Amino acid sequence: ETPLERPWPVGYVPAILDLSNFYIFHLPLILGFLAFCAVSSATYIINDIQDLEADAIHPEKRNRPLPAGTVSRSTALVLSFILLIVGISTALLLNWMFFILVILYLINSQLYNAYLRKWAIVDVVTIGIGFILRAISGAVLLQAPFTSWLVIGVFFFALVLGFGKRKNELQYLGDDAASHKPVFQQYTDTILDHGISMSATWFVFFYTMYCYNVFGDNFEAQPVLLTVPIMAGLILRYVYLIHIGSPVGRKPHLAFKDKGILIGVILFVITLAWTLFFLTLVLDFVGNIFLTIIP
Q: Which of 98, 209, 239, 289, by CA, is between 20 and 30 Å from 175?
């Protein structure tokens, strides 16, 4: 696992869920995504440098390039500096508001690295704020409106991932957890279970409200609400995997190797694609037939 593997493409959420135009191949969005990847990767490298000694004795993290010694500290610093320059410069060229969001994300990340990760709950909330900044940045690049439902939904989705990761790490490290990450002195299984349950519930609620708010008054898009139970099933499956000790919390990419999540994602994509594209074409086709038959 390298630092460059960790950024999440949250900025694509407004593009994927935009009904009137499909912007996923929108050039500014792609460049903005790459800029955010560069900046977030730089912050992860800085975090790895700060945690070098602790990661060296961690059963999994010791295999990362820095603790393993395959990449030197000086090389990592140079790489993080280059990524920051490239990411920030690209953001400035794209859009001044996007640039501000990238700077805010960078500040938020460094506050997390330096101070905020030391306090339970605050650490996960800080991660959630980072997800919000990514989602808003995508909407800014698209010059598309975004609702509070989307922003808050993304925030609670981040909390599910954050609390889930800590639950998983606590299970994996056991009594040694606090020696690897001091914040585990403040976390308990009960606190993390409540955090996961609350965040998952609120995420599904705000996802539902977002779908209704954006698509609800459009008859042709009503079936998008069928994605709600699919999304709920995906979240429940993820929570289930966390509770049975699956490493999916520490390694989110493993979620796509789970058959339940994979089937849910396929159903979600098919339902969303049907709603956003094909249903409109079918209704237009049927409407034209009726207009031909009944002048």
A: 239
User: Quick one: how far is CA 81 from the chain centroid?
Assistant: 24
Provide the sign of the torsion angle of the four alpha carbons 224, 225, 226, 231, taken in this order: positive
Query: What are the structural domain ranges in the chain?
Result: 1-120
Give the mean pLDDT of the chain. 82
Q: What six digits make up the tokens of 136? A: 């808003």
What pLDDT is stored for residue 219 in this prediction? Answer: 52
| Predicted local distance difference test score (pLDDT) of residue 177 | 83
- Within 13 Å and on the Cβ side, how many CA atoms surround 130? 29
- 58-107 pLDDT, tens digit each: 888 888 888 888 888 899 999 999 999 999 999 999 889 999 999 999 99
Sort 95 into a burial class: Cβ within 10 Å, 0-12 / 13-18 / 19+. Answer: middle
CATH number assigned to the domain covering 1-120: 1.10.357.140
Angstrom distances, CA of residue 227 to CA of 106, 208, 266: 33, 9, 11
∠ CA 50-51-55, rounded to 5°: 155
Q: In which residue are the tokens 């396929």 written?
A: 266
> What confidence tens digit (pLDDT) does each residue in 206-239 have?
999 888 877 655 555 567 788 899 999 999 999 9
DSSP string, 81-103: HHHHHHHHHHHHHH-HHHHHHHH
Residues 95, 141 contacting (CB under 8 angstroms): yes
What pLDDT does 85 receive?
Answer: 95
Q: Which residues contact 117 (CB under 8 A, 6 or more apart)?
A: 123, 126, 183
